[in-house]
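Why do we bother with holo predictions? Because pocket geometry can differ from the apo form. Keep that in mind while you read this record for zinc ion.
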Amino acid sequence: MISITAYPPIGTDKPPQTSARNSAENPAKDTSNQPKKKPIWLSPSSVNAYLRCPRSFYLSRIAKAKQKPSIHLIRGIAVHNAIGQFYRHRLNRCANIALSELRPAVVALFVDEWNRHKESLSTLRLTDEDLDFFVYDSKKMMLNFLHDFIKAKGFEQPAPDIEKMLFAYQYRLLGRIDAIHSGRSPPLLVDFKTSKSKEFSEDYKRQLAIYSILYQNHYREKPEVTIHYLKFPDGLETYPISDQYIDETIALVKDIHTKIQSQDIADYPCTCGWCERNFYPQKNPNCNPNQTGI
Ligand SMILES: [Zn+2]
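The structure, written out:
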């Protein structure tokens, strides 16, 4: 996941649709007359969004308000997708290519992804100088990724699972993990960050704990969880997550699920001060970012 918590793009985390779990999906079997609302699934980004600002959570996850793009979001998506393309194009199997050819090929993967966002980028009203900086900075990140890939003897390693979505039904919890190296012992989970520092925030720790929960729930094995800070050479950092922290995170997820049963915007105060700026105004007057009543 990228350093800001809106990746994957809000609304793309789709849990599996199972009629047994959600009678609203299967009205023929629904014996009650009450409309049933679709259960909300939580992801690392939505858990952190709720903790940072309940109003932001409400707008993005419940009211489905459209969020304004940001340069950090677009850049993060472009870099993540470019790394995904590295494996999809099987460059991880091209040990025979000279480094002098591989480096521009990896940079080109980013440029292709960046160009896909030209329209969104034009709405940001950034100067050409600012945009050039982000392109330059991102190209360096791609080269740092390649550097670490080669250093870790990536050509000789089994290909990781890229952007794999995992689910834990009992907690209605899901997450898309950037890279899973399941052939190692213990298995290694990697989250790519495009953040400008290596600060290990509480948000990041919680995110890794949720990945660990999801992985253990699915594979019954505790993984090693890491963050690859792409801005830095040798940016892969491993963080131990204690069983106690895992238990606390599960309790936190259950608590948030209880709190987000409400459909009333007044139960979701803005604590960030940015909601009005970050979301487009909604046609539904109950969904306006700056609505008072809290
Ligand atoms: Zn807010």
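The pocket of zinc ion is lined by residues 53, 55-56, 270-272, 274-275 (CB under 6 Å).
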